[in-house]
């Protein structure tokens, strides 16, 4: 069952040219030339209940703008958004109670007071019954093991501690849909792991998550479906597991040899990086060149010292999708 539908969503920003040099900056004080930036263009997708969907794309692709429109922070220029039957920007007051929001770069906690006081503030804002509030708070604090820090002023907390508290802020009213914009940005490996476990647990209990991230480990560990946007447009929307198929059956081979490695002219084989005369990284399309055949021919050409065979990196697959779109 779809609980989010987005149809032909477009967002344009109006900006004014100021120019680079002093003369044009001065001129712009009297006459400002307007220009339009299209951040999101004709974007359509839907999200089913219980999904974890990742919105990916390079810097400036329009991910945050999309999340801001979905959460009702920004008005779309055109198009439609329906989340749980609500129109986010038109029914904002009722809508905010249905969703949780976390912007990795922007805090919802109040800097000078302890997180616990901010949690109590949300209890009032969201009308959370006292018993539910206590049960959820106890549970989340135990899950994150942060019982000892929630009474310290927020400004004294580490980034990881603060982010865990931000998650609690976003989840205390038990929203069915949660939007996360860069939820693990700047965190260490352990904190990232904790946060991913938390998201997974909440998802298993029925929460739908829509997240943006540049962290491909978030994607590999959490996300079931990816939506890739580039220059505001959707360029990919499918299961994460299908992403690998996009580049065919490619493998990466790291090879070091006792002798100089010259050109390896085999169909479906390409030297992707030459580290030295004796060490290279190759990309092999195993549909065109079987691994056994490759190894056999290779061993006739060079004296192999070491070899490793890996799956192609997910970064490469994703950037190949942007590149295809760029043409
Ligand atoms: N308030 C604004 N006024 C004008 N242009 C804006 C505004 N906000 C965003 N943009 C532009 O819209 C485009 C998309 O920005 P957005 O922040 O949505 O990208 P993003 O995919 O989230 O990028 P990043 O990964 O860097 O966070 C960019 O070109 C950005 O400069």
From TrEMBL:
Key words, A-Z: ATP-binding, Nucleotide-binding, Transport
Source organism superkingdom: Bacteria
One Pfam family hit: ABC_tran
Keyword Plastid: no
Coiled coil, from the record: none
Ranges where the ABC transporter domain occurs: 20-256
Protein's UniProt keywords contain Transport: yes
MF-aspect GO terms: ATP binding
Family the UniProt entry places it in: Belongs to the ABC transporter superfamily.
Name of the protein this chain belongs to: Vitamin B12 import ATP-binding protein BtuD
UniProt source species: Paenibacillus pseudetheri
Upper classification of the organism: Bacteria, Bacillati, Bacillota, Bacilli, Bacillales
